[in-house]
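#onboarding

Welcome to the new folks! Below is a worked example of what a typical request in this channel looks like: someone posts a single protein sequence, and someone else replies with the predicted structure as tokens. Don't worry about understanding the tokens yet, we'll cover that in week two.

Example request:
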Amino acid sequence: MKIVIDAFGGDNAPKEIIEGVLLGAQKHADVDFVLCGDKQKIESILNSRDGGKFTIVDAPEIITNDDMPTEAIRNKENSSLVKAFDILKNDEDAIAMVSAGSTGAILTGAIMKIGRIKGISRPALAPILPTKLPNKDVLLIDSGANVDCKPINLQHFALMGSAYYSILYGKEDPKVGLLSNGTEEHKGNELTKEAYPLLKQAPVNFIGNVEAREYMSGSVDVMVAEGFAGNVLLKASEGAVLAVLSLLKRSIKSHLSSKIGALFMSKTFKELKGRIDVLGKHGGSPFLGCKKLVMKNHGSSNRNNIASSIDQAILLHQNKLIEKIGKALEVASGSNA
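Example response:
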């Protein structure tokens, strides 16, 4: 079993990427890791350290966020990302690829090089976010890969998101909601109105429309959205969390009594930080709908995020995520006929 690593994708590449792989290798001794990137630089970081099985594939080029995704995938054949995709596609033992590189290039490469599961109209990104309930997270699908969608796309998002969530959290029948501007069935734009009956027919636990303010309430496990609205919701949530934390920090510093109180609440603040750092727990997000696992990590990922992404890829492979999506799609296709 092999996992392919784009060692030069991300803001902290290659050092943090490779250190993350080393952490993953310590935990998964039966996995071979294929590192794609500048061979000399990779070797200098590995420095003959034990603790894993490594193969280095020399790839001197790098795809950056400034590159046009389609042109980069076609023309930068010696880049770390394209080399990683080629190995994932052609090596039967390769179960997944992990990259913190350009989102556009990863999505483009996944479609062009790996291809979609038969019947899936469009693959999607599905990040995990915290809710106000302890030990309860919510999955948002799609978060930006598809800004213009058709109703059938949203049904497929529901199928993929439900299968992914059930594996990640061991919940057999996760609650699936559709992002809308009201909870009533007739609310929403033309897309959500047409998608609503398709989600009702799908082999998922569809609970109806859910408003944006409720998606982190803990009442829903999987929130389905077209990519434009999903990305706006995601970015707005991130901005709101950062603003609240900034205000809290400023308020604490403004009074001596607050500073003293903060000392007694240090454990609470640490727990809060851990609760909202879902990235640390799950590392990245799979590009759901592809024939093989493509793990997209945040560009600022550190070694712990990369190690978590490796853990997640192995978990999804062992629990046959791709096969599970395929079976759900067959059932849905029958109900749509």
